[in-house]
Design a protein that fits this description.
The protein is of the alpha+beta class. Helices cover about 20% and strands about 20% of the residues.
Length: about 240
C-alpha cells in the first residue's frame, strides 16, 4: 500500500468536499489485498468531515497526544500506525479490522461489510473501517491492514520494530509461511489473524456494502464521520445482527 505524504493525502482528501462522506461506492464487488507498513495512516491528518482523525502512535507504540500534526515515521517523523489497529475475530464467521482504500475517491472512517466470495474464507464476513488511502489501491479494492501483510511502497516497520525480511517476508504480501511467533509481541495476534481466522486466504474477493461502524472499531481508531450523514456506531450485538441479516 502506498503511503501518501501529508500534502498528497490532503490533496486527495480535499479534491472533493463530499468525498469523505460519499466515499467508495456504497456497495459492489471487489477484491482484498493486505499490507502493514507501520506508517502514520493518511486518515490521521486533520481534515473536514471527521469528528476526529485516526489515532496514531509513537515509535514505542504509545498514543501521540499531538498525532494530528506529527509527521509520519515513514517521512522522518515520529508518528506510526498503532498496533491495536490490527484485525481481530469477533466469532468464527465475523471479524473486525481496518483497511486502506483508493486515493482517487477516499472514504476516511467509513465502514464496510465485506463478504468473502472465494477461497477458504468464502461466506465469512468482516467489517472494516477505512483508515488509510493509497495511490496503488483501486476503486473496488480493500487493502486489509494485517501485520505481516507486506510493506508495500513504504517501510516504517524497520524503524519502529526492527523488521527484517526473513521474518516480515516479501515487500508485497509478506511471508509465505506463518512467521508470526517471531513478530514483536504486540503484533503477534494481528499477524496470526491471517493464518487463523482467514485460514491463510490469499487476497480473496468480496462483495461489500457500506454500514454503520461498530463501536468496538471506533474505540480503537478514534475516528468517525461528522454530520447528520454519519451512521451511528453500532454495539457488538447490533453489528452481529446486521451481519447475520
Amino acid at each position: 500500500m502506498a503511503y501518501l505524504t501529508r500534502l498528497a493525502a490532503l490533496a486527495a482528501l480535499l479534491a472533493s468536499s463530499a468525498s469523505i462522506v460519499s466515499a467508495v461506492d456504497d456497495s459492489g464487488s471487489g477484491k482484498t489485498t493486505r499490507y502493514w507498513d507501520c506508517c502514520k495512516p493518511s486518515c490521521s491528518w486533520n481534515q473536514p468531515g471527521l469528528t476526529s482523525p485516526v489515532k496514531t502512535c509513537d515509535i514505542d507504540d504509545k498514543p501521540l497526544a499531538n498525532g494530528v500534526e506529527a509527521q509520519s515515521g515513514c517521512q522522518g517523523g515520529n508518528a506510526f500506525a498503532c498496533s491495536d489497529q490490527s484485525p481481530w475475530a469477533v466469532s468464527d464467521d465475523l471479524a473486525y479490522g481496518f483497511a486502506a482504500v483508493t486515493s482517487s475517491n477516499p472514504a476516511c472512517c467509513q465502514c464496510f461489510k465485506l463478504t468473502f466470495t472465494d477461497g477458504p474464507v468464502k461466506g465469512k464476513k468482516m467489517i472494516v473501517q477505512a483508515t488509510n488511502i493509497g495511490d496503488d489501491v483501486d476503486g473496488t479494492q480493500f487493502d486489509l491492514a494485517i501485520p505481516g501483510g507486506g510493506f508495500g511502497l513504504f517501510d516504517g516497520c524497520s524503524k519502529q520494530w526492527g523488521a527484517t525480511s526473513d521474518v516480515w517476508g516479501a515487500q508485497y504480501g509478506g511471508p509465505s509461511t506463518n512467521t508470526c511467533p517471531k513478530f514483536p509481541s504486540k503484533l503477534k495476534k494481528g499477524c496470526g489473524f491471517r493464518w487463523g481466522w482467514m485460514k491463510g486466504a490469499d487476497n480473496p474477493k468480496v462483495n461489500y456494502e457500506k454500514v454503520a461502524c461498530p463501536a468496538a472499531i471506533v474505540a480503537k481508531s478514534g475516528c468517525s464521520v461528522a454530520g447528520s450523514s454519519r451512521p451511528r456506531a453500532l454495539p457488538r450485538a447490533a453489528a452481529q445482527k446486521l451481519v447475520e441479516g
